[in-house]
Specification:
The chain is mostly helical. It contains three helices and no strands.
Length: 70
């Protein structure tokens, strides 16, 4: 069974803010070097946090296409 959820622009904006906030909270816990050396661990942590936030395991992974550290 396929369930389709339609969201309006405000819902999408709110979801984007939640996701960005989750990512920022986790990444802030690490130094630049730790981020570069442990990117998979951080991605896994973000995935688990998003799964918990949304109460689902439908989120199966997080991927950084690029990781820029300053």
């Amino acid at each position: 069974r396929v369930v389709q959820i339609l969201m309006d622009r405000d819902d999408l904006t709110e979801q984007e803010a939640i996701i960005k906030n989750t990512i920022n909270q986790i990444i802030r816990q690490y130094t630049k070097d730790e981020c570069l050396e442990n990117s998979q661990q951080i991605q896994d942590e973000i995935c688990k946090s998003l799964q918990k936030t949304y109460g689902t395991d439908y989120i199966v992974g997080v991927n950084f296409s690029t990781l820029t550290a300053q």
